[in-house]
Amino acid sequence: MNPVRLKGLTPDEFERLCLKLVQKSFQAFAVRRGGISDPDQGIDIEATSGSHRLGVQCKTGRLTVGVLRDTLRQLIRYPHRLDHFILMCAQHPVPSTLDEFRQWSSNAETTKGSISTVELWDPDRIVSELDAYPGVLERITQASRGPIFAVPFPRPHCTGREAELRSLYESFIAGKKSQVAVSIVGLGGIGKTTLAVEYAYRFRESYPGGVYWINAKEDILAQCARLGLLAGVANTDTETAVAARAFLKTRRRAERSLIVIDDLDRPNQLNQPLVDELSLAECESEFLITSRFTGLLASGVSRHVLATLSERDSLASIPRRVPCNLKSSK
Fold it and tell me: Domain 162-329 maps to which CATH number in 3.30.1330.30, 3.10.290.10, 3.40.50.300, 2.60.40.1120?
């Protein structure tokens, strides 16, 4: 396989490729820990085999000395002991970077101690490893050709909400041009987030431009930046503001898409400038909002007040022991 093919991968595709490679090459249990989902973790992939712990950082952009130093500063914050660290690069590093990496590797450490084994895998090394597992790259890129679905929850078991789901969908279909959002409001724990998740899964095929999720209680700018990585309009080394701007701009000219904003308590957050006067409200997307404030009103927002489940529907969920409320399980 030609190493040049790796340069065309989005950050999400490259991380998933590295994950598969670690799982197969090391026969280890591996999960994604940072990167597009949580850059503060210090690593992108964590793998364990017995008591042995491996950490991986994945870089799609060109590895310069500056990028390497930023990467190692993130790594040192990793909160667990590491026995093995691999820096995987989709592009060949700048030569001077290799010298600095070799110098650092003699004293590699995190806050929990030294790292005994340190490696840098350039595209040639990655391709040589992939040769043993034909078809892995093709399956990953094929899976990425569909619309982005960035909902951070599995599909819930939720009963008794068919009327609400149909009403939400019809509100979007019948919405006027001035209507920017549909909101689900109700008391805490009543199932607003679960209903939003079920709507996203059930109607995902209606949104060829993708389905995106934002938690209104967290840093919205940082979340837009991560969504920019998912959408392939930014790299892992792109500045937060630049990545967020790229995501917001693509939403202004994309196909029909949905942005779910969970736990919103201030409707003016939609119009609040995030970067370069760009706000969420300027995205040409449909918005599904959840809020516990039943008095939440905003111009152009269709409001759906969520009632409690009937006794029959409440009992229907008991045998499976899955309450119709994602947040209560956290």
Answer: 3.40.50.300
